[in-house]
Design a protein that fits this description.
Blueprint (H helix, E strand, L loop, with lengths): L1 H5 L3 H17 L4 H16 L12 H21 L2 H24 L1
Helix pairs in contact: 2-3, 4-5
């Protein structure tokens, strides 16, 4: 993800993001949900042609912020810091939701 941010390549960023999500799903103890999520990621990835901004924030800034959020989440998981991981998961979800809500308002 970091290399994609540095290269200003949003498509590579999204693919790296999905690989991270797949790796996190792979360590889930729930095999059924992990498999379902991974297959959905594969389906979405196979149909992604481009990445467009969904808010007024420039796409480069957006992917840099998403990279920081994911990096911090991986660090929290590595430290087994449950509270911080849950906080970051909430931020992950709500920051996506606010971008989608903003795009729908247009």
């Amino acid at each position: 993800m970091e290399h994609a941010v540095d290269a200003a390549d949003p498509v590579a960023f999204v693919h790296a993001n999905w690989r991270l999500h797949a790796a996190i799903a792979a360590i889930s103890p729930n095999v059924l949900l992990s498999s379902l999520y991974t297959h959905l990621l594969d389906l979405i990835e196979s149909h992604t042609l481009t990445v467009l901004p969904t808010s007024e924030q420039p796409l480069g800034e957006y992917i840099a912020h998403r990279h920081e959020l994911h990096r911090d989440l991986v660090d929290a998981l590595d430290r087994q810091d449950r509270d911080e991981a849950l906080r970051l998961i909430h931020e992950h979800h709500t920051s996506l939701q606010s971008s989608e809500d903003h795009a729908a308002e247009r």
